[in-house]
Amino acid sequence: MSGVLRVRPEERVAGPTTPGMTREQAVATDGLCAGFVTTEPGMVSGWHHHGGHRTVFYVLGSRFRVELGPGGSGAVEAAPGDLVLVPEAVVHRESNPGTDVASAVVIRVGSGESLVNAEGPGSG
């Protein structure tokens, strides 16, 4: 890339899918991808991890709950303005415990597949 790139909302494309989440990809280069995710109120995503990618998301609207560990025993809740870091290969799922659509800007840095759907923690 030889300059500054602007991606308007209507230019985002469908991103990798996990049940319960809508991902839109804005930028995808070698080692970096960035986009937008939404989750409907009360929705719980499928278990997944992001392979060799570190994921940072910035919550814009409503709330996200990130569950991890055996049976989802560990959890982090994030509200608008919060940043969340999910390390490489951590099996997790997101849910929206709020009453409005949850939305976030997502940035991933790493290599390999950026999404691996899984059965649950410990299933790889």
Produce the secondary structure layout:
Blueprint lengths: L12 E2 L7 E8 L2 E8 L8 E2 L2 E10 L2 E5 L5 E5 L4 E4 L5 E4 L6 E10 L4 E2 L7
Antiparallel strand pairs: 1-2, 2-3, 3-10, 4-11, 5-8, 5-10, 6-7, 6-9
Q: Could you characterize what this model shows?
A:
With 124 residues, this protein is mainly beta. It has a single domain, classed as Jelly Rolls (Sandwich). Helices cover 0% and strands 48% of the residues. Strands 1-2-3-10-5-8 form a six-stranded antiparallel β-sheet, with no helix packed on it. A three-stranded antiparallel β-sheet has the order 7-6-9, with no helix packed on it. It is globular.
Summarize, please:
It contains no helices and 11 strands. The protein is mainly beta and 124 residues long.
